[in-house]
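Quick start: load a record and inspect it. Here is Type-4 uracil-DNA glycosylase:
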Amino acid sequence: MSEGKLPGPPLTRVQLLREIGLSPQWQLREQLAVARATAGLPASQPAELPGEAAVDRAAPVPVAAAAAARTEEIARMGWPQLLPSAAACRACALCQERRQAVLGVGDVAADWLFIGEAPGAEEDARGEPFVGPAGKLLDAMLAAIDLRRGDDVYIANAVKCRPPSNRTPEAAEIASCAPYLERQIALIQPRLIVLLGRAAAHALLGDVGSLASLRGQSLEYPAPAGSGHSIPVVVTYHPAYLLRTLPDKAKAWEDLCRARALMRTAKAFAAQSA
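Running the structure step on this input writes:
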């Protein structure tokens, strides 16, 4: 310090970091993984997000803008574009081991929409959701309330590609598939949505509680674009779970009866409004 010169105020932590060329921005690894999946970036790709060091690279990719652009693109698609888009999707690591994307099956103008968690081995092989033992049980559940696959019923999954070893889909994988599920709902505009399992419930409703706490609640999905009303939602057990836990079949039957009553109410209201 030179004579007679008073020291200035001490530098803040942010200023110190900037002086040595470092950014003070940090993000949790899980947050980065979800952001990458939403933007369509592989989890293993070198740093491209704000807050990560981008060494020997061009300016960081604007992740929020990339995610918004992808979502907007899918939101403009019709049925002919959705399947090839999902088949070509590389938004998460599930594409590396899948045989094919499993978009959904059934009546594309259905009143009933059933959403499961993710394809299993048989679904991955055949390209259709719920075709194994769990699928047979789902068909029996539909028949119990006078429904059948493909007749005023559409069946989809929250995640379109099979997770390894049929594990539960992760948050980042659910996030990467969310635009496809949202577009399916907007195109179908069902009168009622039945969510089969915890992952399906969290995909549509967010992490708002356990499956047991969601059962029996009055839940709604916001009105899709072009629709003037929200959609009632019923949460129940996944058929694969019911195959392992037989006593809970009675609870699932209660949920189906409630769903049938809600559908009758929705149709009666629509008839009065017509």
